[in-house]
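Item description
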Amino acid sequence: MVRLTRIYTRGGDKGQTSLGNGERVPKHSLRVAAYGTVDEANAVIGVARLHTAADPAADPEADAMLARIQNDLFDLGADLCTPEEAEPKYPPLRIVDAQVDRLEREIDSMNEGLAPLNSFILPGGCPAAAQLHLARTVVRRAERLITELAEHEPVTAAAIRYVNRLSDHLFVLSRHLNDQGRTDVLWVPGANR
């Protein structure tokens, strides 16, 4: 476990921060932007959980899935904030294939009961679904930053797979929470011409 005894350190007052390996980088570096956006996605999921945990009609497993995802996103942040090194002093925490596999199993399980999709979906429906659509878009932005980072520095393949699968998971979960897709808000092309 991590023990935080002091919240402010003044170490970032000049626009730099420390990575997991102690290296100092600008706060606007691509690596920091990538794991910062993962943190933002985690916060949006936290807001979605206000609805999944409080709604007695909601599937209790939905909140449990989101709780696991929030923990995984901290793992992903730890993975991204620690650049790969040949011989690290301490073994870094990395996303592993089992975490990606779990997302895929959950997607497949939820997808079995969904109403057929006949149009693109507009973000909305129940409050939890709307928040999950917002989380999905933040995860997609994180994915863009992570894949851009991977063009310049090594990023674990499982981390990229995880974030890619996560946006799919949040989409399917939003439909699941919208009465198995029956209360999805559908796009009607050209409806307001």
Q: What stands out?
A: The CA atoms of residues 56 and 63 lie 11 Å apart. The longest helix spans residues 127-152.
